[in-house]
């Protein structure tokens, strides 16, 4: 098993508190939770899945116009994927795909109860035409038939295998393992629908995919060092000196800034954590695992989800409490990740104690020495650590309104704009977009309530593991 393999705290189980309480008799198994989620997905129109069909249509029309033969193989393979997908009995389970498939999308704002129609021009998507569709046999050959020696990672939904293509390129093949065929198809399309449109040095590089028989495979460039989580909490922790940690923090911030503010559309990742940060051989971080990512229409302040997906220890209070999703929920998770980078402690320790709750009093007391990972042996740049500590303390503010946005985070991490942010603090409430009253509640959301909700979610998920 490779260095990145870890199941500890991999509680990326979908818990659906509202639905479960309405289905009290249901066994809270992971499967049931996933089914309930699928049920709700019928109502959820923010899923990015349909973009793939839109793209398929776009590629077809481009193909007609250009008559180019060079990419026709790839296009026909895309066609095959959707043909394959369409003949499966999944229609009933994925109505949102049909809603999303065409050039017009109807976005229903749950916060304002207003309908807004957004036209999606087919040219809008900057889809990567270079995406390769592999045959199953190619990937079986590359991964030694998905042998256990090639297994380098396992999450809640997938196993990841190291492989080598014929031309010598090292790859990581993510094989979706969790759920029924319909669920795997849905997860596959969801992740592919986002990642195929993301292109930044600090996001994982997808090379291609494969759908054959009941296999759903996503193919990425291999990150030779595995995940930040496996490194910082594993035996090779000593490789992460302070300068590398600082570089990693800056890189993740750049990647998240891109997703939130500079990508074609606002992307909320929803599962920012150390295990979802891959490292290149130069310790450049790359955000991966877009399985839970959401696209947020420009005109929305936020969206509400009834299913809480993500990882314990990284949840923002308003997400836990009200299912509110926006950039600030990612920023809270990023703050937890910064605390992890500074302290070397996991987001939830063996006693299930939250890193945020451990760090809060130290942040308030500005006790930097107590926060810093003892394994760094005082060998760190005090100014840089100070910037990261300050940024982390802002990111994990209980109130989303008081958390900085990613462009502010990026400058704060470099030690700029600190005073600016402090002086604007008083004004922020009036300048900030107005949230519904749930967020006002969130401001009163204290550590005790946070802990209680966290425990509630954990119990449900653990219950589901055991059943
Ligand atoms: N390109 C890659 N190179 C090296 N290792 C990888 C790569 N992609 C994924 N991994 C490893 O596999 C693990 C699981 O991958 P991933 O997070 O995509 O799976 P998942 O089932 O979607 O996880 P989660 O439970 O967080 O949703 C990662 O934490 C990482 O250690």
What does it look like?
- The protein is of the alpha+beta class and 467 residues long.
- The chain has helices at residues 17-22, 30-41, 50-66, 72-87, 95-100, 136-142, 181-195, 228-232, 242-262, 317-322, 327-343, 355-364, 368-371, 382-395, 406-413, 418-431, 437-443, 447-466, and strands at residues 104-108, 115-119, 132-133, 151-154, 158-164, 170-176, 206-212, 215-221, 266-268, 277-279, 285-287, 294-296, 303-304, 324-325.
- The strands form five sheets. It has a six-stranded mixed β-sheet, sandwiched between helices.
- The longest helix has 21 residues, at 242-262.
- The chain binds adenosine-5'-triphosphate.
- Residues 4, 10, 12, 152-153, 155-158, 160, 172, 174, 204, 220, 222-223, 226-227, 230, 271, 275-276, 278, 288-289, 291 line the site of adenosine-5'-triphosphate.
Number of strands: 14
Bound molecules: adenosine-5'-triphosphate
- Taking all residues together, what is the mean pLDDT? 73
Q: Report the helical percentage.
A: 40-55%
The strand order across the widest sheet is 3-7-8-6-5-4
The description of the largest β-sheet is: 6 strands, mixed
Structural class, by secondary structure, is alpha+beta
Low-pLDDT runs of 5+ residues are 1-126, 426-440, 463-467
Overall geometric form: globular
Rg calculated over all Cα atoms = 22 Å
Biased composition (Basic and acidic residues): 30-47
InterPro entries: Kinase-like_dom_sf (IPR011009), Prot_kinase_dom (IPR000719), Protein_kinase_ATP_BS (IPR017441), RBK1/2/STUNTED (IPR046958), Ser-Thr/Tyr_kinase_cat_dom (IPR001245), Ser/Thr_kinase_AS (IPR008271)
Protein name: non-specific serine/threonine protein kinase
Main location: cytoplasm
């Amino acid at each position: 098993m490779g260095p990145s393999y870890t199941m500890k705290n991999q509680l990326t189980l979908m818990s659906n508190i509202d639905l479960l309480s309405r289905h009290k008799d249901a066994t809270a198994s992971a499967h049931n939770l996933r089914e309930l989620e699928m049920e709700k997905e019928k109502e959820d129109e923010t899923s990015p899945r349909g973009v793939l069909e839109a793209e398929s249509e776009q590629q077809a029309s481009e193909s007609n116009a250009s008559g180019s033969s060079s990419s026709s193989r790839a296009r026909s393979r895309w066609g095959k994927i959707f043909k394959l997908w369409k003949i499966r009995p999944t229609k009933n389970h994925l109505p949102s795909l049909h809603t999303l498939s065409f050039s017009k999308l109807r976005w229903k704002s749950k916060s304002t109860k207003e309908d807004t129609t957004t036209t999606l021009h087919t040219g809008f998507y900057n889809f990567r035409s270079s995406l390769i569709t592999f045959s199953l046999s190619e990937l079986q050959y590359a991964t030694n038939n998905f042998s256990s020696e090639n297994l380098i990672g396992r999450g809640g939904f997938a196993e990841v295998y190291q492989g080598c293509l014929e031309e010598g390129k090292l790859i990581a093949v993510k094989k979706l393992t969790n759920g029924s065929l319909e669920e795997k198809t849905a997860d596959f399309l969801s992740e592919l629908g986002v990642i195929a449109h993301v292109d930044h040095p600090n996001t994982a590089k997808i090379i291609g995919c494969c759908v054959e028989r009941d296999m759903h495979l996503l193919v990425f460039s291999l990150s030779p060092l595995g995940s930040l989580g496996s490194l910082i909490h594993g035996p090779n922790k000593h490789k992460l000196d302070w300068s590398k940690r600082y570089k990693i923090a800056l890189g993740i911030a750049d990647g998240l800034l891109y997703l939130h503010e500079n990508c074609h559309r606002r992307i909320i990742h929803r599962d920012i954590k150390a295990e979802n940060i891959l490292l290149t051989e130069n310790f450049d971080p790359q955000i991966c695992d877009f399985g839970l990512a959401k696209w947020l229409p420009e005109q929305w302040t936020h969206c509400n989800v009834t299913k809480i997906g993500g990882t314990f220890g990284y949840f923002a209070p308003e997400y836990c409490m009200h299912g509110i999703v926006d950039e600030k929920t990612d920023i809270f998770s990023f703050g937890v990740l910064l605390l992890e980078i500074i302290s070397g402690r996991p987001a939830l320790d063996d006693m299930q104690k939250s890193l945020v709750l451990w760090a809060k009093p130290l942040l308030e007391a500005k006790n930097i020495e107590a926060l810093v990972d003892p394994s760094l042996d005082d060998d760190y740049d005090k100014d840089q650590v100070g910037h990261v500590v300050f940024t982390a303390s802002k990111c994990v503010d209980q109130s989303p309104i008081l958390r900085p946005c990613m462009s502010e985070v990026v400058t704060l991490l470099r030690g700029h704009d600190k005073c600016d942010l402090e002086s604007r603090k008083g004004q922020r409430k009036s300048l900030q977009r107005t949230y519904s009253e749930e967020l006002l509640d969130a401001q009163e959301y204290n550590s005790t309530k946070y802990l209680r909700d966290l425990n509630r979610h954990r119990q449900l998920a653990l219950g589901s593991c055991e059943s």
